[in-house]
Write a structure and sequence with these properties.
The protein is an alpha/beta fold. 34% of the residues lie in helices and 17% in strands. The strands form 2 sheets. An 8-stranded mixed sheet has the order 2-3-6-4-7-8-9-10, with helices on both faces. A two-stranded parallel ribbon has the order 1-5. The N and C termini lie far apart (115 Å).
Length: 303
């Protein structure tokens, strides 16, 4: 019988049945796991940032679509106005024209705050009507009967410009007879409108609010976010008021000692801390002082 020849494996050959080295070390597996967890957390964080960026308007604006009362509810005559047509002819903005009891060449453009709609301005409209001026008040887009969209700082500035254009273009009012009055967040909108339309003879800022960013950065819910990068609705009139030469009246609640923006604002300016019942005499004195100088104020530059 032939002797069986012993098989010799080729050089470098390893048996597949022999014990193998692990494909990945424990340290590598741990590092990969931690990296996966970190990446997942980063994705969650970035998603949260995106949601904040998209929904930030809700932190600033609290609009209501329902008009629950009108000037006629408090005995004021008014005309409901639709204006600011789009390229397709759709009128975007809704407002109230409240004429003075006696014919007047002076008009007050009221810019309300960040919540509700025109219905909430009725107590103030009653007081302002006693000044003997025409009043035009309107809702920004996203408020009341105006076009439904998410409002922003940019859109409110555009809407204020549209209201100004309506008064000067459609009603043919002289720009030097239009007084701007901003309330709450509307004070920042009024300041920006005065900067854009320097012919206005006077600017009234009622209870001006701090810049939105200053308020949010102390909120525990936003402290972990890079809100200075994400937030685009600033509503900070500080620099505008520091350069604006339009006469300004800043009104604060009786218990408000901050005098916000007053020190930074350029002259001419004046301030008052008042209860609501005491506003009318101060407004009357301020407007009597500067409306008579309306033509001269046009030549004052806004830098």
């Amino acid at each position: 019988m032939a002797k069986r020849r012993k098989h010799t494996p080729p050089p470098g050959w390893k048996s597949p049945l022999a014990p193998q080295q692990p494909l990945a070390s424990a340290r590598w597996i741990l590092g990969a796991g931690l990296a996966s967890i970190g990446l997942a957390m980063l994705c969650v964080y970035l998603t949260f940032c995106l949601l904040f960026w998209q929904g930030q308007w809700q932190l600033v604006f609290k609009p209501s679509p329902a008009i629950t009362s009108t000037p006629s509810s408090v005995g004021l005559k008014y005309d409901e106005i639709q204006f600011d047509a789009t390229e397709t002819g759709i009128l975007q903005l809704n407002g109230w024209w409240i004429p003075a009891d006696q014919p007047s060449t002076q008009t007050l453009l009221l810019l309300h705050g960040n919540s509700g709609n025109l219905s909430g301005t009725l107590p103030q409209l009653q007081i302002l009507h006693q000044l003997g001026m025409n009043i035009f008040a309107f809702d920004y887009r996203g408020f009341g009967k105006s076009r439904n969209l998410h409002p922003s700082e940019k859109s409110t500035y555009e809407d204020a410009d549209a209201a100004w254009s309506y008064l000067t273009g459609t009603r043919h009012l002289s720009a030097s007879t239009i007084v701007l009055d901003g309330v709450g967040l509307g004070a920042a909108i009024a300041a920006e409108t005065a900067r854009r339309h320097s012919q206005t003879p006077a600017l009234i800022l009622e209870d001006p609010q701090p810049p939105i960013l200053d308020t949010l950065q102390w909120d525990s819910l936003t402290r972990l976010l890079p809100i200075r990068l994400l937030f685009h609705d600033r509503f900070d009139p500080t620099q505008t008021l520091a350069q604006l030469r339009t006469p300004k009246l800043l009104l604060y609640p009786a218990n408000d000692a901050t005098a916000r923006y007053y020190d930074q604002a350029a002259d001419p300016k004046q301030k008052a801390n008042l209860a609501a019942a005491d506003v009318l005499p101060v407004l009357t004195s301020f407007l009597a002082k500067y409306l008579s100088r309306g033509q001269a104020l046009i030549s004052l530059p806004n830098h």
